[in-house]
Specification:
heterodimer, A: mainly alpha, 10 helices, 2 strands, 65% helix, B: mainly alpha
Chain lengths: 237, 144
């Protein structure tokens, strides 16, 4: 029986329709690890009757929902790592390095075009090309490379999610990725709207230059953090 | 020096990161110039202009790579020397650079705005394939 005290003070249970009665799947870390106190783990039968019998009972020994949320993020990550796909990637001789190769080739295309787009925004490169024209021409390649990179990167993270959860460089990488996305969003919603006014000028507005510099910095950080993840996992630094 | 780079945990990944950043400038140029020759991007601009503007940034990138590459090599020279990927990378790199200066430069100098003649497409395709092979070989040294 797995339960917690809900925000409304009533008993709640984790019900997972994919878990058959009598089994506790390792694919559901919430069910396998965060046991309700005082009950034997593993071979308990999860019946609707079990849930209903506890509803309305004394809740004083039920932990709060926050207790489960705190421990469960790491456990979810560990559960992802030990899933079929995660294990298959990790243990295959070829899947991990090939995914890594695809990840880096996607990075080359995405970041190779982003660098020159940023240099144009800084007014330092491709100054004879119109900004909007360059964006129209290069950004489809950037997004193509990024999609390849994101899918392969997600599969790589899947196979070592449990170890990545506490990895400093992985957290930096996720943070920088979000910041890079935010930077693109802000740029497109603000200064890029008036691009027709500065499309052909070699010297770009300050806000465009800030966006370009931020993007270069964040992508450098993303690459450095990405490289550091592999080393820190190998050497436990 | 080899021991100094290998001994601490950080010099090798830091050098590798710089090597990759240099590569981004070089490969970004190669990618955009070759795609222009293929007629896939920036067709409205002349080939010589795209190539000229980009090459200014490819040189510093290449400079970083020339500095960091040998340092990475001497840190683990035996491993690199024995790696078939390292050998193929060096051969392909020489071919790609030679092809760039002998063919791609001349062809892109003759490509005007709005066109992408068959010989430009051929040169762009061959160049892109060569550089892709260089990068796949280079990455494979560490990955496999």
């Amino acid at each position: 029986m797995l339960g917690y005290k809900g925000l409304d003070g009533k008993a709640k249970v984790f019900v997972n329709s994919t878990t058959r009665p009598g089994t506790l799947s390792r694919f559901h870390p919430l069910l396998s690890v965060t046991d309700f106190p005082g009950t034997p783990s593993k071979t308990r039968r999860l019946h609707a009757a079990d849930f209903s019998s506890s509803l309305g009972h004394d809740l004083s020994h039920y932990p709060d929902l926050s207790h489960y949320l705190k421990v469960s993020l790491l456990q979810i990550a560990q559960g992802i790592e030990s899933s079929h796909i995660g294990t298959a990637i990790r243990e295959s001789m070829w899947a991990f390095p090939i995914l890594n190769l695809v990840h880096l080739l996607g990075l080359m295309v995405a970041a190779g075009t982003i660098v020159y787009w940023d240099l144009r925004l800084l007014g330092l490169g491709l100054r004879r090309s119109a900004v909007s024209e360059l964006g129209r021409q290069l950004l489809p390649w950037t997004w193509g490379g990024f999609t390849v990179m994101f899918i392969s990167g997600s599969l790589l993270a899947w196979s070592e999610a449990g170890r990545l959860y506490n990895n400093f460089f992985f957290r930096v990488k996720v943070l920088f990725l979000l910041l890079a996305g935010l930077n693109v969003l802000i740029f497109h919603l603000t200064i890029y709207r008036s691009v027709s006014a500065w499309d052909h000028t070699p010297v770009t507005p300050l806000r465009a230059r800030i966006a370009g510099a931020l993007s270069l910095f964040l992508w450098f950080g993303l690459i450095a953090a990405g490289r550091a993840i592999g080393y820190s996992l190998d050497y436990g630094v | 020096m080899s021991v100094a780079i290998r001994g601490a945990p950080w010099p090798f990944p830091v050098l590798e990161t710089l090597h990759i950043v240099g590569l981004l400038l070089v490969f970004g140029t190669v990618l955009i110039v070759d795609l222009r020759l293929l007629g896939a991007v920036l067709r409205r601009e002349p080939g010589w202009q795209v190539s000229g503007d980009l090459m200014r940034w490819a040189w510093p990138g290449f400079g970083v790579q020339i500095l960091t590459g040998p340092l990475l090599f001497i840190a683990n020279s035996r491993k690199f020397y024995d790696s078939p990927f390292f050998r193929s990378k060096l051969v392909l790199l020489v071919l790609a650079i030679a092809f760039h200066f002998i063919v791609v430069r001349r062809v892109s100098a003759s490509v005007d705005a709005g066109v992408s003649p068959p010989r430009a497409r051929l040169a762009g395709g061959v160049s892109l394939a060569l550089w892709a092979a260089v990068i796949v070989s280079g990455l494979s040294i560490e990955l496999f």
